[in-house]
Each structure stands twice: as C-alpha cells, then as structure tokens.
Amino acid sequence: VLMPYLVLARAAPGEWRGRIRPRDRAAWWRSYRRFVRHHARLAAEERAELFAIGSELTSMSGPGEAGRWRSLAAEVRGIYDGPIAWVANHDALDRRAPFEAVDVIGVSAYFPLAEEPGASEGAMRRRASAHVRRLRALRAEVGKPLVLFELGYPSRRGGAVRPWDDASPAPADPETQRRAWAAMRGALEGEGALGPRGWLDGLFAWTWFGPGGVHDRHYTVRGKPAEAELRALLRAASR
To answer: What percent of the chain is helix, strand and coil (3-state, nearest 5)?
Structure first.
C-alpha cells in the first residue's frame, strides 16, 4: 500500500494537515494533483495493491470539495489500475465527500480510549467497542471495504487519552500502551470485525519502527508488553 501524505514545513501549535486553509484553493489543488499523480505513477511502477489519494485532510474534504476529489480520482485511474482509497481522520467520519470517489474507505483510527490517564482495560474496552460500532456502521452506510490505515498508541502516560499526540513529554508507560491495544483487540473481536467472516477489510499498526523497549515512549510495540497484544490481534485477523 502506498499512502502519500502532507507534512507542514512550518506549523504553529495545534496546526496540522487536517486544518489547512489555503489562501488560494485553486492553486493548492493544482499543486496537490501534481503531488498525487507523481505517487500514483510510483504505485503503478511498483505494483502497489492499494493507493491512497489523501489522508487526514479534513478541512479539504467537505461537500464543496466532492467534485475535486472525483476529478482527482479519475486522473489517478488513468495512471494506476489498482483500487484507490481515501483516509479520513478518526474525528471526521461524517465528512464523506472523498469516499464517493474511491474504492476503499480508509480511517486513521486514533480514537481516544480514556478521559484521563490510568483508565482500566475494561473502561478502555467499552470506549473502544463504541468506536468500532461506529466503524461498522460507516462501512454499511457507504457500502465499500474499510481499512484502518493507522491504528496505534504511544507508550507514554496519557497515551490512550490522546493517541494522536506524538509530541507529549509525558514519561514512558508501556502498560498503558498494552491496555489500549488489548482493549481495541477485544473490541474488534467482540464486534465481529476480524477473521475470514469479519467486516474489517484490513488493518495497519502504527508503527514498528523506532527504538523499542520498555523505556521508549513512542508508538512501536517492539520489545514492549503491547507486542503480544498486536500479535494476538493479527492471529485473530488471520484465522
């Protein structure tokens, strides 16, 4: 799978690609189309099995942009003959204009599993189940395959409260990461998402790279208690 996405070269606190407001939207779209076409050619050359034409661009995915996404999808299909996806942020599942243009629904699934640090695994599981039910409803309403393009939790205190926050200075807390992964694994299994008869069509863990080990505060599960939870999830998905 190839998923190109934007990173802001300069950003004030709280600014990120989901909140961009181009002064000249037409110029932005011309530039973005060139960016996506370039990566579509790479996807075609390398025979990628799936190509995403956008990720987490919430402010550029409202109803007024539907025609732009349809036009972009048509251009990509002239370059790359595999299925294409759009990846919505977890808090923007109602902004579905790009979904109309693609073959696969993608979600960047950093759903919060707790309101404050120290939540139990059971409490996280209940919140995770509610999020998973929303995903199942989304798939049924749109009527297209659904893939979780990013699912992960940093191994730091509060990592289940704001899973998307990759800059928190909070101390390492691998047990919080393990509980979060266990809660999401239990929710996916409990809601029938996994396995050959499951309704979830794919899942990518964010992430494997990074130092690893119990003193590492980042997303990788390598060498941490959460690694066993991810392995169990993948086994459940493949049964």
So the answer is: 40, 10, 45
